[in-house]
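Case study.
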Amino acid sequence: MEKTDSNYIKNLRDKLKKQKQSWVRVGMATCGIAAGSDQAFSFFTDKIKESSLDIKVSKCGCAGMCYVEPLVEVGIQGMESVLYCNVDLAAASEIFEKHILGNKVVTRLVYNGKGLDKQKRIVLRNCSVVNPESIEDYIAFDGYQGLIKVLTKCSSDDVINELKISGLRGRGGGGFPTWMKWNFAKNAVSDQKYIICNADEGDPGAYMDRSVLEGDPHSVLEGMMIAGYTIGASKGFLYIRAEYPLAIERIQNAINQAREYGLLGDNILNRNFQFDLEVRLGAGAFVCGEETALIASIEGKRGYPRPRPPYPSLKGLWGKPTVINNVETLANIAIILDKGGKWFSEIGTEHSKGTKVFALTGKVKSSGLIEVPMGTTLREIVFDVGGGVLYDKKIKAVQTGGPSGGVIPSEFLDTPVDYENLQNLGSIMGSGGMIVMDEDDCMVDIAKFYMQFCVDESCGKCAPCRIGTYQMLQYLTKISRGQATEADIDNLEDICHAVQKAALCGLGQTAPNPVLSTLKYFHEEYLEHVKGKKCSAGKCVRLLNYKIIRNACKKCGACFHVCPVKAISGNKNDGYTIDSTKCIKCGKCYDTCRFDAVKRG
Amino acid sequence: MVKATINGLEVTVKRGTTILDAAKTINVKIPTLCKHADLPASAACGICVVKVKGTTKMIRACCTPLEEKMDIITHDAELQKIRRTVLELILSNHPNDCLQCPRNNNCELQSLAADFGICEVPFPQFLRELPADKSTKTINLIPEKCILCGRCVYVCQEIQDVWALSFIERGHQTRISPAGDINLSESPCIQCGQCSAHCPTGAISEFDETSVVWDNLYNEDKYCVVQIAPAVRVAIGEAFGFRNGENFTGKLYAALRRLGFKAVFDTCFGADLTIMEEATEFVQRFAHKKGKLPLITTCCPSWVDFMEKFYPDMIENFSSAKSPHEMLGVMAKTYYAQKNSIDPSKIYMVSIMPCTSKKYEISRSKEMFVSGYQDVDVSLTTRELARMLKQAGIDFVNLEPEEPENILGEYTGAGVIFGATGGVMEAALRTAYYFITGENYKEIKFESVRGLEGVKETSINIQGTEVRIAVAHGIGNVEYVIKKIEAALASGQDLPYHFVEVMACPGGCVGGGGQPYGATDSLRLIRAKGLYDDDDSKNLRYSHDNPFIKKIYKEYLGAPLSEKAHKLLHTRYLPRPLYKK
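After joint prediction, the assembly is written out as follows.
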């Protein structure tokens, strides 16, 4: 069969690379579509067809600049390609008329390129370029070259050695050396082994994996194939959360294409290698991102973690040796094998190699997905890549690692980001959520937010996490309401330590991190809530006082009517006042007043 | 072997030994809560954490194998503190109503709290307001008291293969319940009570019926009679501090009389009667080709319930003989009543069983009322009896042994081994051999059906014909046997077995769901040994040699499988499929 030959893929690549054609690429990941890029896509497709132009309109993944979506890139033969942002229908029309028909760049809409210079795109290399729905596009951009090299030139030991040289560590949060995981599974003797791609991304605000799956699905498949070849697995599963319909659709489409091209199935590339993939959907439990719970879930059991050892690399899915890697880790594999481990190891710090993708969100001007070399400082990330704090307010802290991570105060902004540094600061790399916080953010409130998440997502198996997270939330709530004592903070800390040490899985063991790190760096703020019954950031509503400003009050009586406890008295002639002894600080008057006459603080 | 250090002491243990077990070899007891000696670690409670010197992480001793050169610390200030906090957290989510709990004084959580000297829990208590499920009238499920150790779920799913219990909801709302949040009585539950036998707290316990028994004992109008099952005699001692399988038969007879029972019978006599009927049934089917083979025993009501629910196609293979306590029940209200001129309507028959399921069996079908009254009025577990003895102020341990009623009381060695897995088979074979050959089997014992192997397959030679048999205990072991039978039937090959014994509980009735708490395989073997010793000590080892059995057939029943025997001693089974195919 022609297609199973590695030369076929190489020749196809060379042929595609030689094609000279103008093109329009529209960012069609979930973020782009949410911003309306599907309209831009249809517009360009229809217009170009109507005008019988020889221009290829294609979808691409997320370029990362989610704050200026929809993004459209135009490459007209003889002109440099131009990336446009905020392309609504009017903008699309203008771009079509002026740039595509008139060869004139619409300068007003061109993306300013801010924040791109400090980034280095390895994982996201294809996300704004390749059409995720086309295997040919992937091949044209050197896709499957890593696999070809491995299958034609490398033994499993060569692959593991190359990964060892690269220094790649797991991007799911733990940072375990990838080569070691693979090596354990490779050396395990078994009639059947498995590869699992962990795409159960669940940290609030994090969407790196979704973007890669939606933007460059074949790179993940290629990584899995290489892993399968290396450890001797003939079967792989992609465990994707069901809330990612587009990622699922594109991955399934990619699997079908890879089968068509003979890259999955029997005798792949004529190298006597058999491998196939299946998609399994997660039902939305955060804990199923924990590897042993994920395995249980694929097996059709309740998503409960189990104690390790035995580690999955020795006893995993259905008791067989199993490598579980996160999406981002797998997206690194093919390019490392293609370009060599040494190339990769030259990026990053001594112990953390390569790049890391972060979902940069919160109080930052340019929110979105960024990819920076390991060792980039938090300051560079927030101010150079992210464009600084929203409304130029004062930065207070950066939260990394989601509910398992911690809060890093602004005095550590110059810390180079790598696995060890973040851990030493009481946080973790995690899967790559990064939330910028300013002076309006209350640390008790932040800790409470993450604890609420952990309470909701605790699987309930082990007592320390099941009961500990619930009790921690009670204490945090008490503190945020000004009802706590200093002894309550001590109790809270005791629970933190117990849960950290005695919870069964990573989710539980790290659940206290947001509390511990805020307690460590913002102890005064806790004391302010406890002793001063005050929340300077103005987030803890129960600690706020409400007052009606006489001069601003229009005496409409709206506040009087919404107050659920009749704490507001007065009438339409004399105006209204709030009795603070009766007020329960629900904030209804504040929300109702249309004249900013209710002041809170 | 693995060499390592625990608390500075060198230990050498077999590879794969957990830190928990390794520590025991140097007399260090690491506290645990969720771990059950016989079950794989679920690692749920977090009490057993220990440290590896030089690392900050704590690991669970219950499920982490000791590795070469590990340097383990099991106790230090930090570990004590963490364990205490975890325990306090568990207590903050527990009703802590120990004084009104079925497990008061016998609860693993309570003992641990006592060991830690906990007098106050620093964290606010939060309870889940969950309704108790008493729908089965055999087992009470009180999810509020549950610490989610997972033992019951494991036992129900993996050992019993019943899947009545599972975890539902998640986080702090997690609880045990039948899937779909239905009642236990609507679930596949077969009421074996293994969940209750493994529960560390009062979350699952037997449906207590002692008060109705007290009422009847104090009712002068009633003629209260009682029978005790084989397995009870070797386990009741545990409630009084004897964990050695000692046989307390004589003391039990005496104690039951002191409780106020007017006649004390022994279910072992019923067992001898069952053997007469069942062995005859076997000979009919095997030697005279009348009826289906293999013949499957039906002494165990949980097994009967399971079969009716999941393998109704095999009902014809079931022995129609009633279980021993039912046979004894009906004989008490007919034969015994007539003989002693007692109005059977006044007889109140209590059976003391190692079993929760017997509570269900006594009213499971109309055949259980064949005397004209309910043949057995109430069935108590060993645990309930122990409580009654204590309430009655009976100094059980120092009682002088007494004898049972000679009618419906005297039993042979074959009757008493019913309480151990393989016992029914062995007793039946002793008599079947006699029925076919006309002489007693010389070696008496059938060693190959004894012991705790999940499925025991063997064959014996009776007059040149091979009788193939299988003995399974623990419902999870049954599937193998049934599948083998089904495969042979489907392919028309020779049957793999002619005679099959099944007991729902691991170890048979000695490991029953109503027995004193804390059963492990080693204790089950000790209890079984107590029964086999009793057999060894008997002059009469064959049911058909029991003079009172002979008498009852002569005076009342005629012969085994006679019309009268059929009416009184046999029952029928109904398909009760839970799910449509």
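Observations recorded in class. Residues 267 and 325 of chain B are 5 Å apart (CA to CA). The longest strand of chain B covers residues 465-473. We will return to this complex in the next lecture.
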